[in-house]
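Rotation project, supervised by the postdoc (A.L.). Task for the rotation student: set up a whole-complex structure prediction and record inputs and outputs verbatim in this book. Inputs entered:
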Amino acid sequence: MKSLDIKSSIHSYSVYIENHLLDHLKEHLDQNLFYVIISDDNIPFVYIDKVKKACENHLLILFPEGEKSKSIEEFSRIVNLLLEKSIRKDACLIALGGGVTGDLVGFIASVYLRGVPYIQIPTTLLSQIDSSVGGKVAINTEKGKNVIGSIYPPQKVLIDPSTLETLSERQFSNGMGEMIKYGMIADKNFFERIKSEDVHKNIEYFVFHSLEIKKQFIEQDEFDNGLRQSLNFGHTFGHAIESYYKYNKYLHGEAVAIGMVMVLSKAEVRKQLIEVLKKYNLPTDDNVHLGELKDYINRDKKNRNQLLKIVDVLEIGSCVITKSQFQL
Ligand code: GLY
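Outputs recorded:
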């Protein structure tokens, strides 16, 4: 088993990464607690079953699969259900599933009764290497992605990379978009390994090292005021494209792949990125006109003083944040 300790000014927590961790999940859970397991209605039932068996006292809540569930309506429905079932502050929520589940459940945990604990059990590559760690939780509105949210760390993150075996190829590639991003912004050697190796064969390492990279950024800038914004490489245009297509056309990692290509200022770096994106069947462009994205880009959370903050990679393995490239 590999593990990482993440320092947070709110509370520090551990991330455990182990193939087949779900088969002995009970060891990681305090049986004196009441658990509310929250998941989407398309998750393989075998995972729900394993988590239920590991929690002596529990309630299961399911919501419709997909980004559209990160909505105010679904948030209200689940909060009302928790109230109806008299779930108190001493219960612990479990977010079992992908990034949508983690973001929605984490956001509910951050505000329900002014905050209850939650555990992340991510089952997709995207959520294992990114969204389950760092405490960013949020829901969307029609006008933008993650525009209502907070930074609220989980009690722990339990990662079983063997769950990725049931993931569709498209969902795996979706996560690869974020993994490639880590190589681009922070580690050229990692980028080269993603390019040349079969990631599936050594998945525990690739998940672990992605999180080692993420840890460096989130521990130094937990509240996303500077350095952590580097993790948003490709996301300014990526989020705008996702919102423009109302979350119907692209998965998050696919939109980020296009966003990374769009934002790069150096042709040579763009060429190398496109080569790796193609290896993982990720899209590299879209014919939407930049003007159509303007309103969505203007709402980007990194914007300050009317200037758009753009993360660029001038050389693979490091990044810069510029403020002047695109004036709003
Ligand atoms: N996914 C980017 C971050 O956690 O800051």
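Student's summary: The longest strand covers residues 144-151.
Supervisor addendum: The mean pLDDT is 94.
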